[in-house]
Design a protein that fits this description.
- By secondary structure, the chain is mainly alpha-helical.
- It folds into 2 domains: about 35-45 and about 215-460 and about 505-535, no CATH class; about 55-210, no CATH class.
- It has 22 helices and 8 strands.
- The chain has helices spanning about 5-10, 35-45, 55-75, 80-100, 110-115, 130-140, 150-155, 170-185, 200-205, 215-225, 235-255, 260-270, 280-315, 330-340, 345-350, 350-360, 380-390, 395-415, 420-430, 435-445, 455-475, 510-520; strands spanning about 125, 195, 320, 320-325, 485-490, 490-495, 525, 530.
- The strands form 4 sheets. A two-stranded antiparallel ribbon has the order 1-2. A two-stranded antiparallel sheet has the order 3-4.
- Helix 11 (about 235-255) crosses helix 12 (about 260-270), helix 14 (about 330-340) crosses helix 18 and helix 18 packs across helix 20.
- The longest helix is centred in the middle third of the chain and has 37 residues, at about 280-315.
- The N and C termini lie far apart (about 75 Å).
């Protein structure tokens, strides 16, 4: 309702009236607007996957269901696209229901539990009518944008219109079809809506588990995920993805069985392994971009942690129970004191440049960016410390953030000397409103001769509050309240009842790349959760 509409209501019928309390929906994903560069970097090196994709068989199943629905309908003389779509939904419902019965529910199984799975034991569920339509309206299917859908299309298991299965995928589809014929009665897959008892589909999950693809399925996935990048007709995304996987395999050959953090530390060093299985050009490109990604992850987390620190400080101060506004100078002084109490190098520095130089000197003979994997300046360790500080002792955040920004600058300054295609350079630097690392470095360089506390005026006023207010305004057209901090006459105040929750690093797709690699046989997963590859004798 617009303000003019409210005015008209009171003009037509004046007087007092009781209204409901004003409800403001608070929103706050990516409150400083830094997330997109992280995602762009991930897309550049790990295209075709997201943070959900883990199992090869989902790809086979969706391709099979599209092929089976089309061929089944054609065999029965039906060419209605809606009938084919409904068949695909039924096949997926059967597969999801069987896994729920087997105690391994798919993500988003709530809709299934509230509809089909409520069928009394021993009775049949008919795949038509109100309950079936409710399930289709409320379920999250495998092809959803937040699930496997974008990846299944990107890896070319289906054409973009979801109607045609790529010919290279058909061996996996036919292998799966042969196995389905052994466990499901043909009437369950026919066009006519069947009535199905749970006992009729239990074997679907036990014999064709999501976690257990066949050798044929693994070989097809290796082709579409990795090997296709060597084809002369491969797209740039395919070539980059293969370069990233080749680099990952080379790193694991060098390290042996490794945790994800072991791998991330190796990534930030930007050192090519001796054994490169693919084209050196693409492996080199992936290595540089993955090093940038580690630094960007730290930059984003440190900046967001400073937002949390700022809100907590604004919360602590009160006059007569009401929050007291705090001027920038006071926030700067408190951040400077907190950093000095935690970091000896910061305390010993007079200017911003002195502190930045002291962090660079920690690299010693190792140099940068490799020093970003060493104790004291390790990107991964700093991210762990920032997460713990948010949870246990926010007073440590300024000291950790100062070192984080100095490390990010050192990494960026070292990597900017590397040769990258212009398109990749735009991924790193092409969004100035997202505070790219090059812009952050330039701003620190510009104040290098100023007293060390000048760093906090830049960080708090520009990177934290300035970025936050900008993105709150940009996204403010949907009625959600995003603003957390506002300027009053005497200084800054927190405008929300509750302070920000803790921030975590952007999920970087490394786990899903490792999980898919293990699922298709490119790499191995050890019993203790590490990942490795077989070393050649």
């Amino acid at each position: 309702m617009k303000l003019a509409d409210i005015d008209k209501l009171f003009d037509d019928a004046g007087g007092l009236r009781v209204v409901a309390a004003l409800e403001v929906r608070e929103s706050g994903v990516d409150p400083i607007g830094l997330r997109q560069i992280n995602l762009d970097l991930m897309d550049n090196v790990a295209s075709g996957i997201n943070n959900v994709t883990q199992h090869v068989r989902y790809y086979t199943f969706v391709a099979w269901s599209a092929w089976k629905a089309s061929t089944q309908a054609a065999m029965e003389g039906v060419d209605d696209p809606q009938v084919i779509a409904d068949l695909m939904e039924r096949y997926e419902a059967l597969y999801a229901w069987s896994h729920l019965l087997d105690g391994r529910p798919f993500r988003g199984a709530t809709a299934l539990r509230q509809t089909i799975a409520r069928t009394p034991e021993g009775q049949a569920f008919r795949f038509e009518g109100e309950v079936w339509e409710k399930y289709k309206r409320t379920r999250t299917n495998i092809m959803a944008p937040t699930e496997y859908g974008p990846s299944i299309k990107s890896l070319r298991y289906l054409s973009l219109d979801e109607a045609i299965v790529t010919k290279q995928v058909m061996p996996a589809v036919m292998d799966f079809e042969a196995r389905v014929q052994e466990v499901l009665s043909p009437h369950l897959l026919a066009v006519a809506p069947p009535s199905i008892k749970a006992s009729e589909i239990e074997g679907f999950a036990t014999r064709l588990s999501v976690e257990d693809p066949s050798d044929v399925e693994r070989a097809v996935f290796r082709l579409m995920f990795h090997e296709i990048g060597s084809d002369e007709l491969a797209s740039p995304a395919m070539r980059r993805r293969k370069g990233t996987i080749d680099y990952l395999i080379g790193v694991l050959k060098e390290l042996g069985p490794s945790t994800q953090d072991d791998i991330r530390k190796r990534f930030v060093a930007n050192r090519l392994p001796a054994d490169i299985g693919g084209a050196a050009e693409h492996v080199t490109h992936s290595a540089i971009m993955l090093a940038y990604l580690q630094a960007r992850q730290l930059q984003r987390l440190a900046t967001e942690a400073m937002l949390l620190w700022t809100e907590r400080v604004l919360t602590e101060e009160s006059v007569g129970g009401a929050a007291r506004s705090i001027p920038t100078e006071e926030l700067v002084g408190r951040a400077d004191a907190a950093a000095a109490s935690l970091d000896d190098l910061y305390r010993a520095s007079v200017t911003v440049g002195d502190y930045l130089a002291s962090i660079v000197s920690m690299g010693g003979d190792t140099g940068w960016p490799e020093s970003a994997a060493q104790p004291g300046t390790a990107v991964v360790d700093l991210m762990v410390s920032l997460r713990e500080a948010q949870q246990k002792d926010p007073t440590q955040i300024p000291g950790l953030a100062a070192r984080s920004f100095a490390v990010v600058k050192a990494v960026n300054d070292a990597l900017k000397l590397t040769d990258l295609p212009q398109t990749s350079q735009r991924v790193i630097d092409g969004r100035p409103d997202r505070l790219p690392m090059s812009l952050m470095s330039a701003r620190l360089e510009a104040i290098s001769e100023r007293p060390r506390a000048s760093m906090w005026a830049e960080i708090i006023q520009g990177w934290v509050i300035g970025q936050h207010v900008h993105w709150s305004a940009v996204r403010g057209g949907d009625g959600n309240q995003r603003l957390r901090i506002a300027l009053e006459e005497a200084g800054w105040m927190r405008v929300r009842k509750r302070a920000t929750g803790n921030f975590v690093p952007t999920a970087d797709r490394l786990y899903t790349m490792l999980a898919l690699g293990a699922s298709c046989g490119l790499i191995q997963r050890t019993d203790d959760g590490r990942f490795g590859v077989e070393r050649q004798p």
